[in-house]
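Look over both lines:
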Amino acid sequence: MSDKKTALKPVKKATASKSKAVALAPAPNPEGSLSRYLTDIRKFPMLEAQEEFELAKDYAKSGDTKSAHKLVTSHLRLVAKIAMGYRGYGLPIGEVISEGNVGLMRAVQKFDPDRGFRLATYAMWWIRASIQEYVLRSWSLVKIGTTAAQKKLFFNLRRLKGEINAIDGGSLNPDQVSDIAERLGVREDEVTSMEGRMSGDQSLNAPLRGGDMGDEGGGEWQDWLEDETPNPEAQALAKDENSARHAILMDAMATLNEREREILMARRLTDPPETLEILSHRHDVSRERIRQIEARAFEKLKAAMSSALPHAGGVTIEGETANH
C-alpha cells in the first residue's frame, strides 16, 4: 500500500472544474525518482478487453471514480512510453509524463466503449496532444506552432534533420531547407524560421566573448542592437523640409492664372487624376488644348520653384537638391 501511495500522487495542475477522476489520477513526482515511478506503475495490472469495457461502461453511466482509477492506472505505462519519445526537447521528463497523464485522464472521461475499440487506441491521441501542447508552451516565450502545419513542422524538424544528417551541421543549407519543406508541405521560409526558433530564446544580457564582434567585441548582446527608428533630429529636419517644400509650392502656384492652377491641380495633384475628356468639357476646349495648358502650367510652376530654391536651403524638388 505504501508503494501505491507514492505512485498515486495527485496531479498538481488538477482544478476544481475537472472531474473526480482527474483528482485521483497518478502522476510522477518531479522531485522524486523517475526509476521508482516507472517501477511503481508496473504494479498496476493490464486490463482484459471485457474488463476494460465493463469499467468504461460503469464510469460513463454512474461516474464511479474507482472504475476511472483502474482505467487510468492500467495505462500509465502507455503514457510513460509515449513521453520518452519527447526527451530530446530538454524538458524535465517527469513533467512531460505528468502532462501525458492529464491527456490520459481526459481520454478516460470522453471514452465511448460502444464504438468497439480499446482505450489505448483512443487515449494515445489525447496523450500526444497534451504533451505537445506542453512542449510548445515551455519551449519559448514567443508563441509558436499556432497552426496544424506549424506544429507538424516543429515536431518533425528534428527527425528530418537526423534523416538527412543535418543535426550537428549548423544551419540548414538551401537544398536541405527545400527538401524538408517539400516533405512536410510547408514553405521554405517557414522551415528556416522554425529552425531558428527551435534553438531557444537568447537573453539580451548574454555576455559576448571578446572578439565576437571584431576588435571592439565584448559586453552583452543588447549593446550591439541598433535602433532603426528615426532619431528626433532626423524627424525634426524632415518636418522642416516638408514645411519648406509646401511653402515653396504654394508660392509657385500663386504665379499661375486660375485656369492653369485648376487644370494643374486636377491633373497632377489629384488622386486619381481627372481625365482630359472631363476637363475639356468643363472648360469648353479640346482635349489637346487641356494637355497644352497643363504642360505650360507645369513648366511655369517648376521655374517659379527653382527661382525660390536659393532661399530655401537644402530642399529637394523632383529628385534634385538645391543648397546654399
Summary: Residues 157 and 163 are 10 Å apart (CA to CA).
